Amino acid sequence: MKKTLCSLLTVVLLISCFAGTVDAAWRASGKFDITVTAGELKPAKTGFPMAAGETVTINATYSPSSADIDFGLIDKNGVFHYLKGENGAFNKKIEIPENGTYTFAVRNNSDVSVNVTGFVKY
Amino acid sequence: MTLREKMIVLRDKAGISQMALAHQLGVSRQAVTRWESGDTTPSMDKLKALAKIYDVSLDWLCSDTADGKSLEEVVAPVEDNGTSNATTSAENKKKIRYAVIALVAGVAILACMWLAMRPKNNEMSGVQFEDMENEIVDIPDQGVNGFDFEWEG
Fold first, then answer.
1. Is B114 at the interface with chain A, CB within 8 A?
2. Closest residue on chain A to B102 (Cα)
3. Angle B18-25/B29-37 helices, nearest 10 degrees?
4. Are B129 and A28 a contacting pair at CB < 8 A?
5. Which of these, B140, B24, B8, lies nearest to B79 by C-alpha position?
6. With b meaning 16 or more CB within 10 Å and e meaning fewer, what string describes B5-33?
7. How far apart (Å, rounded) are the C-alpha atoms in residues A91 and B30?
8. Which chain A residues are within 8 Å of B149, Cβ to Cβ?
9. pLDDT averaged over consecutive 10-residue blocks of chain B (153 residues)?
């Protein structure tokens, strides 16, 4: 009985470990720490080559938290797809609609410089 | 015939339940069950008491190879039935135990699969482009105004 229970526990632990690795299947994760001046749209130097259905996770905080900040991706046609940060934070996963290279960008709609830190995973 | 088999047959012949026997001996019903399943053996005091209750000799009760005439007389009428019942009961218990273990294992595996598949609390479902604000922008020179990531993967 004890052997059976131990075997069962081992199976459960193995599956749990497998479950933990499923979510960690990211291609890359990049940190950033930037200052965005008033009214500036600040893009990353390099874009992400993405396939349709893949996701880009953006997790960031900014200061001052009262600032009006847009986070998003610029597609190959120069369209900035963005969402606003709230209360000094932004945490979203964006699903890519079609294959292409997408550039992460942060826009500061405030009239003061804003310090933005965080990471992007894709 | 082993001690446990004798205990099963004698109790069956006496027509008393495990609970009743346990009560007479001052032990728990589980103790009687364990004796009869062979998991444990009664102490000498309990063996003496059993011999007295069933009106058999302690020597006969304790001897695995005691197949003398008096033994057959005591045991024969119910031997086959008692032994097969005991065996069937043990097999059934084993089957039930395996079924319970299989059920628990199945539930555990399904629970793990569900945990693996479900999005974590701190993760959100993917936002579609059509749910976002869209605006054509003049992209600044990325080489001059762009920033680099500190890549980790």
1. no
2. A8
3. 110
4. no
5. B8
6. bbbbbbbbeeebebeebbeebebeeebbe
7. 58
8. 30-32, 44, 46, 120
9. 86 89 90 89 89 86 62 51 65 88 89 75 72 90 87 77
Give chain B positions within 8 Å (CB) of A109: none
Are the beta carbons of B115 and A70 separated by less than 8 Å?
no
**What is the crossing angle of helices B69-117 and B3-14, to 10°?**
100
User: What ipTM does this complex have?
Assistant: 0.75
pLDDT at B69: 46
The most distant pair of C-alpha atoms in chain A lies apart, rounded to whole Å, by 70
Comparing B18 with A19, the larger pLDDT belongs to B18
pTM, full prediction: 0.52
Handedness of CA A52, A54, A60, A66 (dihedral sign): positive
How many other CB atoms sit within 10 Å of the CB of residue B62? 17
Give A71-116 pLDDT, tens digit per residue. Answer: 999 999 999 999 999 999 999 999 999 999 999 999 999 999 999 9
Q: Is there a cis peptide before residue B140, judged by omega within 30 degrees of 0? A: no
